[in-house]
Amino acid sequence: MTQSDQQGRPRDPSERVGTGTARTKARKRALDLLFAAEARGLGAGDLLDQQIAEGEAPTNPYTVTLVRGVVEHREQIDEIVGEHATDWTLDRMPAVDRNVLRLATWELLYAEDVPAGVVLSEATLLVGDLSTDESPTFVNGVLAAIDREHSDAPGGRTD
To answer: What is the pTM (predicted TM-score) of this model?
Structure first.
């Protein structure tokens, strides 16, 4: 029998439905890279380049796409997240939440082949597994607000 946490989620993330997809794994690997770079005081692009040079490149190209996308658009992403994270600055957020929000915001704005619902669901699952009990609700709310604003904008998402 599977053991569950207080919200009824399986304790072992590998037991979750949907965690086996290639893009889910790519998102987790991208989060690992962003988190590690921040913890070490390195640029995420620099850490990615270092890993590639050392033969430790991510196996899924979507990981590279995510990390490079966040690096390229980080200033804009941080501004947008900051506008929608009511009463929270990026610096005050748990590092996992901050970096998941960056990844998911990039996907909402630039990954036209990924439905917004998938972006929100995947981000919520990541922080549910790796951050605080309040993180899924917080991250989902911020991303939903970003999606609403950008799907209504000219040229915004239509999914």
So the answer is: 0.84
Tokens found for residue 61? 């190209």
CA-based nearest residue to 10, from 19, 140, 25: 19
CA-CA distance, 7 to 2, in Å (whole number)? 13
Residue 141 sits at φ, ψ, to 5 deg, of: -65, -45
Phi/psi at 139 (nearest 5 deg)?
Answer: -65, -45
Q: Which amino acid is at 153?
A: A
pLDDT in tens, 93-126: 999 999 999 999 999 999 999 999 999 999 999 9
The residue whose two tokens read 């086996």 is 20
Residue 83: both structure tokens together: 């506008």
In whole angstroms, what is the distance from residue 125 CA to residue 17 CA? 10
Contact 122, 129 (CB under 8 A): no
| Distance between CA atoms of residues 144 and 126, nearest Å | 16
